[in-house]
Specification:
Blueprint lengths: L1 H23 L7 E11 L3 E5 L7 E4 L4 E10 L4 E16 L2 E17 L4 E19 L3 E7 L2 E11 L5 E9 L1 E2 L1 E9 L2 E8 L6 E2 L2 E9 L1
Antiparallel strand pairs: 1-4, 1-15, 2-3, 4-5, 5-6, 6-7, 7-8, 7-9, 8-12, 9-10, 10-15, 11-14, 12-13
């Protein structure tokens, strides 16, 4: 009897391990979930610095500033999931005599590993397209620089709130942009309407860090 009790106790941890392994492979109800998100980012090369007479200066960076979009998450099991996002990422400044912006569309594909009920980590790829830097300053200049589509890496840490519909993400992105063409419509009051293709200039550093709130529905 004692030997049987000892054997049962010795096998108990293995029983729990087998049970845990089985739980991770069990089908998940509602595998697919959708979300919308809003985030703020900082980093990257400074593209332009604006000085105002009656206010603070404003800079436009290649890693800033606002990221808005929607996503979809597919859950494989208790440990693994795949998140895809499509967002509009931009930094801009609008004044009485100036409209300046750096914008792009960002597509993310990130597999996540669930550490516990609250935290998950992921490393994936991000693909940026329709990247443009636009400068319009009254009659002085109206120009647009278009960039080639770029792929980069994204590392992400997610924290799940007690409310299952909300989670927040800390992310780091490594990416650079290469100029494709420059379109000059106006300069110093004169209409130009010229496009320069295959622009040979150094690449722009778009590396950034950001904080994003996701609402799941």
């Amino acid at each position: 009897m004692k030997l049987q009790s000892f054997a049962a106790c010795a096998l108990l941890p293995f029983a729990f391990n087998i049970n845990a392994a089985e739980n991770t492979s069990l089908p998940i109800e509602n595998n697919l979930a959708y979300s919308v998100y809003a985030g703020i980012t900082t980093g990257g090369d400074e593209l332009i610095d604006l000085e105002y007479e009656n206010g603070p200066s404003q800079s436009i960076k290649a890693g800033g500033l606002i990221n808005l979009g929607a996503g979809a998450k597919y859950t494989f099991n208790n440990l693994w999931s795949l998140q895809t996002n499509l967002g509009y990422h931009f930094d801009s400044d609008n004044a009485d005599n100036a409209d300046i912006s750096f914008s792009r569309w960002a597509l993310d594909i990130i597999p996540y590993y669930q550490i516990n009920d609250a935290f998950k980590v992921g490393v994936g790829i991000t693909y940026h397209l329709n990247t443009e830097f636009e400068v319009e300053m009254g009659s002085t200049i109206d120009a647009k620089t278009s960039f080639e589509s770029s792929a980069g890496l994204v590392a992400s840490v997610g924290y799940q709130f007690e409310n299952p519909n909300s989670w927040v993400e800390l992310r780091i992105v490594s990416i650079s942009y290469n100029a494709d063409k420059v379109t000059l419509d106006r300069a110093f009051g004169m209409s130009i309407n010229e496009t320069i293709n295959n622009v040979d200039v150094p690449s722009i550093d778009g590396n950034h860090i950001g904080l994003t709130y996701h609402y799941v529905f």
